Amino acid sequence: MKYSDDITLLKGVGQKKAELLGKMNISKIGDLINLYPRTYQDRRTVTPVSDAVSKDNVLVKAHVIQVVKSGYRPGGKRPLNVIVDDGTARMEVVFFNAKFMQNAFKQGEEYYFYGKATKDYGKVKMVHPEFTPSDKGVFQGIIPVYPLTAGITQNDIRKWQKEAFSCMECAEEFLPEEIIRKNNLCSYSYALKNIHFPDDVTKLKEARYRLVFDEMLLLQTGLFALKETKSGKGRGIYFDRDVDPLKFINSLPYELTNAQKRVVKEIMDDMESPDVMTRLVQGDVGSGKTAIAEIAMYKASECGCQAVLMAPTEILAKQHFEGVKRDFEPFGINVGFLSSSVKTQERRELLSRLESGEIDVLIGTHAVIQPDVIFKNLGLVITDEQHRFGVNQRNLLGSKGKNPDTLVMTATPIPRTLAVILYGDLDISIIDELPPGRQKIVTKVADSKKRPLVYDFLRKEIEKGRQAYIVAPLIEDSEAVSDLRSAESLYEELSKKFKEFNVALLHGEMKQAEKDDIMNEYARGNIKILVSTVVIEVGINVPNATVMILENAERFGLAQMHQLRGRVGRGEHKSYCILITDARSEVSKERAEIMVNTDSGFVIAEKDLELRGPGEFFGTRQHGLPDMKLANLVKHIDMLELVKEEAKRILEEDPSLSDSKYDKFRERMNDMFGGELTLRM
Predict the structure, then answer these.
(1) Which among 365, 387, 410 is the end of a domain?
(2) What is the pLDDT of residues 454-485, one digit of tens each?
(3) How far is it, in rounded angstroms, from Cα 402 to Cα 390?
(4) What is the pTM of this model?
(5) In whole angstroms, what is the distance from residue 389 CA to residue 364 CA?
(6) Are residues 340 and 462 in the same domain?
């Protein structure tokens, strides 16, 4: 049995089970082997029934004395009572509504039972425990607990893992011997055996260390290889040092913060250097990234080059266009706008003016990367909200010029250590200061029972002349998630409750013209309450908006909630963010506390990364960052530094990984990155 063999080779995996496993992204033996336990149950010690009552789950080994099939109880629960004895005491094992289990127990045979034992009227009782005959299955020891889907049980996965391990071809070593020896790692087969079925805690730790090391090394080597082939370093455009942007800076209606001034200097130094600029600018919500982008575009234009700014949504691109056009008008800089909604004739004229050099600055959506978009002399590429664009889109845009300078702007703060890893080919600037007068947004949490109070507060704000956003996780009601509020149902409810005010609905499936009309009316103050999906997450600027209400707040990521909260608090008035949630889990409570107590995007991003994992935080496909099974980019940051040096050494020694000792390693790395890597020869 090999890594690449079909999962149906395992006993008990027919078409139906294979389809269920497919929902868990398991189609090959290797997929199953790489389904690591999410936690473990310590069943190493068998507890006598006489000592079984405890606040924790216990493992009991006892003989079945009697099986009692009871009649129906009120509520329709039909209990099955199994009386067992281990020689120290008797215990009653109870299963409700378990008609199918009536023949599962045989009198006189011995079974393991794992669950919580309680005392009820002097009797030891265990309700719905896991169980198995004592001579079958994987039941005693440190037992793995796997993520599941409906129709697949823990015992199914444990049994199939055991069968897969019966053939150790699945655990073929792929790291060169010197790397294993140098880093004091256990073998791959040892690691797999002990991550799934550890003999003891020490072996589990050794296994986990090896597998985390593997994931980190494959990730880091792959990212270095990507950056080696896609990096833009080299001879670039030399922007004239004598062209000073001070004239434009002085025309702005506000003074730059010290952080903005520092970042502008870093960008100017890059642009005036003969090397290509590839710089990431991170700034929290409202820190003034747009002004920095404008200053860079002004410099490029005044030096005779064109600039392009690509935004992730049409609403944001249009907002950028209007602001940049207004600011550049006094300087005679021509600004064009391009998106998929631009009409054919208008688009043809725009592209002609762009190719002739008549347009100095182009602002648009991903439409700007289309093949027929040709620049006369592209010198500066800016992508806004980079986390929404793939690496390929960034490179496509850069290929439209001859080594243009590149600025990547993001309002999703990434801890610096991670940014260095993820954007190894980019220098990093951080705007760590907000403009003066930017007020702290008051954040509160409320459950659905307090909605009337929330609406009373909302009414008072609207009566003061303010505006509000209400954001829902869904566009329309869904049977699959009936507990979630939809934007459409909220709009209907609020239109009736606030009928004296103008309430509008906005979501991503509307036509662009309709969305633009709604946002323009909201920006003018004609719409007082805007009910929306997360389409308003990025960049929209309405200074009069002071209330942000997030429905089913537990459905949003922390960084996403911070972005949405940043839509208010942009003017002189005190602003509020209200999180409505009925979720009671510990993670939900922790997330709510972070939002209430923290207004730093960098702190929130790090917490979000810890809670959700890197794949979900960054968006695996958008970033090209593979999702990892065990490694956590925050918790394992020390190992990441160690592995970074190892990855550098590997590629310095063998840039193409052509040595036969790297054959299996290269295969694994390509699998991790979807087979996309082109290594330098």
Answers:
(1) 410
(2) 999 999 999 999 999 999 988 765 544 455 77
(3) 21
(4) 0.62
(5) 13
(6) no
